[in-house]
Design a protein that fits this description.
heterodimer, A: alpha+beta, Ubiquitin-like (UB roll), DNA polymerase, domain 1, 2 domains, five-stranded mixed sheet, globular, B: mainly alpha, Cytochrome Bc1 Complex, Chain D, domain 2, 3 domains, three-stranded antiparallel sheet, two-stranded antiparallel sheet, 19 helices, 43% helix
């Protein structure tokens, strides 16, 4: 066991972890942040996607050691059930979740896109989201929801 | 009389005459006529179109002439060269912005001499030094195929070349030095497959474009064809002596690799080779087989490589961290017991070409960038780790895996190579 300090959603947390523990396990089992999901454990499906600094990463294959000094953000940082953030609102409006298992990962990848490119076109969205899979097949609604936020960003004063 | 008048002429007249001759010669060298525009052909022979589609695939035209997410063959892909950035052009049959007004002779001149229909010099990033070795039949078939496609209006993007390379007509002097080679003719003693492979490698496939070292003005170094080069920050390894080197290639491995498959003992094509291998996968398997037969026949070139002094302690320090990182980030797919090894052929890393290579560059590039999914194509996907692993972790992981792969030859240039790659991709 080693002491690892993780900075998650703006607060620093020092945890006693096995040094090879993937970030996903620390988030869920040690910090109670159950938004990010375990899908494949292989970095192939995207259900575990979180943002590290400004990049989306698969938390299931990202070791905790080495994340000191970096800012980790999970879906819990985007808003709450009572006060959903703009992207979450758009997902609800477009009914982009069916079973919902992949959605936390979808939201975080989309969030990182919109932060670097506030008005992506559909092609850009499709290419950027290629690493996140939905087995229910809600991809078109996911794209609609992201496009909605992109349009809102365009019309904002 | 004549003698007297000659003697009486001042010396500057002679100089002026010589200078004018020089200027006229230079102008002639730097000038090419336009070829008259034509109406785009409208009727095609379907068998010829099928042949042409294969030539265009074998020539990897779309690899450069289609930008990511952009319309097929409409250009716009940036090509970063040491002399500036070029953008590939539109080769759809649009009359204004593509090649819709090009006649077959204009197209053939471009393919063999690097001159556009209107007479301007094309930059040698367009591999006409290789395409000139193609048969007239293949060029005609490719022309028919390109002319039959949908016309896309897509004006060329402005190149950003530095002076003096921004002056296109100077390419004429480059051509004087490097533009030679006739269309390939079969070698009688060799098999049909070998000859086909040689044709694909030296002609349309233009393998030497990436797999050869370049000289100071961006031409392939003479006498070093296929001896290995670099492209987009990746090592394009030597294609010479592939069957006899350490971690030698077998014929069946090379055929599968060339078609984008995962090959136990070598891995899969990544980086700029990925789209090339996916192109080859769309061609009849005989083409990859022919290329493999030809490449495996090429003898190694004796080169004196500078082997860094072996430091027994290099890489020894960080084995525990490396092992932990491997377990955490890689073992899910590449560990000895990983189901992905069984069901989806993920390679055991110690035998991949990138971990066997003298330089850590391709290993680091593959881990940083992964193997992205190709929309619409099946195939392996590896996530990028650039944001997941920091430099210390990458170095620990690389030295751990290198020790598994080549305990006798640790990489001693990990940190400088990684730093260089991070700089290049900023």
């Amino acid at each position: 066991m080693t002491q690892v300090t993780l900075n998650v959603n703006g607060s620093a947390q020092t945890l006693d972890l096995e040094p090879d523990m993937p970030l996903l396990y620390a988030l869920r089992n040690h910090l109670g942040l159950n938004g990010a999901k375990y899908g494949c454990g292989l970095g192939q499906c995207g259900a575990c996607t979180v943002i590290v600094d400004d990049k989306p990463v698969f938390s299931c294959v990202t070791p905790c050691a080495g994340l000191g000094g970096k800012q980790v953000r999970t879906v819990e940082s985007l808003g709450t059930a009572e006060h959903p953030g703009p992207l979450q609102k758009a997902f609800i409006e477009k009914q982009a979740a069916q079973c919902g298992y992949c959605i936390a990962g979808m939201l975080m990848r989309a969030q990182s896109l919109l932060e670097s490119n506030p008005q992506p076109d559909e092609q850009t969205i499709r290419e950027y989201m290629v690493g996140n899979l939905c087995r229910c097949g809600t991809h078109l609604r996911v794209i609609d929801a992201i496009s909605l936020v992109a349009r809102q960003n365009g019309s904002a004063p | 009389m004549i003698g007297i008048s000659m003697r009486s002429r001042p010396l500057w007249i002679g100089t002026a005459v010589l200078a004018s001759i020089g200027a006229i010669a230079a102008t002639l060298l730097m000038w090419r006529p336009a070829i008259a525009p034509v109406e785009r052909p409208r009727t095609f022979d379907s068998v010829q179109l099928q042949r042409g589609a294969r030539v265009v695939e074998a020539g990897d035209c779309a690899v450069c002439h289609t930008r990511p997410g952009g319309p097929y063959l409409a250009g716009g892909l940036p090509l970063v060269t040491p002399f500036g950035t070029l953008y590939s052009t539109n080769i759809t049959p649009d009359p204004q912005t593509g090649i819709g007004q090009w006649s077959l002779p204009a197209f053939e001149r471009a393919m063999r001499e690097g001159i556009a229909r209107d007479g301007h010099f094309l930059y040698p990033a367009f591999p006409y030094v290789h395409y000139r070795r193609m048969t007239a039949g293949d060029i005609e078939d490719a022309y028919a195929y390109l002319m039959s496609g949908p016309a896309v209006h897509a004006p060329a993007r402005q190149n950003r070349m530095s002076f003096p390379m921004s002056i296109r007509s100077l390419v004429t002097f480059w051509n004087l030095l490097f533009l030679h080679g006739e269309p390939l003719t079969p070698v009688a003693q060799q098999s049909a497959a070998w000859n086909r492979g040689r044709y694909l490698v030296e002609g349309p496939g233009h393998c030497a474009g990436c797999h050869s070292p370049l000289n100071l003005i961006g031409a392939e170094k003479s006498g070093a064809s296929l001896a290995g080069g670099t492209v987009d920050g990746w090592e394009a390894p030597s294609l010479l002596g592939m069957g006899r080197r350490a971690n030698a290639w077998r014929y069946d491995q090379l055929v599968s690799y060339l078609r984008g498959e995962v090959v136990d003992g070598h891995g899969t094509a990544a980086g700029p080779m990925r789209p090339v291998s996916l192109s080859l996968a769309r061609l009849p398997v005989g083409d990859a087989q022919a290329i493999a037969e030809y490449l495996l026949s090429l003898p190694a070139r004796t080169v004196i490589t500078e082997v860094p002094p072996a430091d027994a302690n290099a890489g020894a320090s960080d084995q525990t961290t490396g092992a932990l990182l491997f377990a955490s980030a890689c073992a899910g797919c590449h560990g000895p017991a990983a189901p992905m090894r069984e069901i989806d052929e993920r390679p055991s890393l110690d035998r991949t070409s990138s971990l066997q290579a003298p330089s850590p560059r391709n290993f680091l590039k593959a881990v940083l960038e992964g193997v992205p999914a190709t929309p619409g194509m099946p195939g392996p996907v590896m996530p990028p780790f650039a944001a997941s692993l920091d430099n210390d972790q990458l170095i620990a992981l690389a030295s751990y895996l290198r020790r598994q792969a080549r305990p006798d030859q640790p990489w001693t240039d990990l940190s400088s190579t990684l730093e260089a790659i991070r700089q290049e991709t900023k």
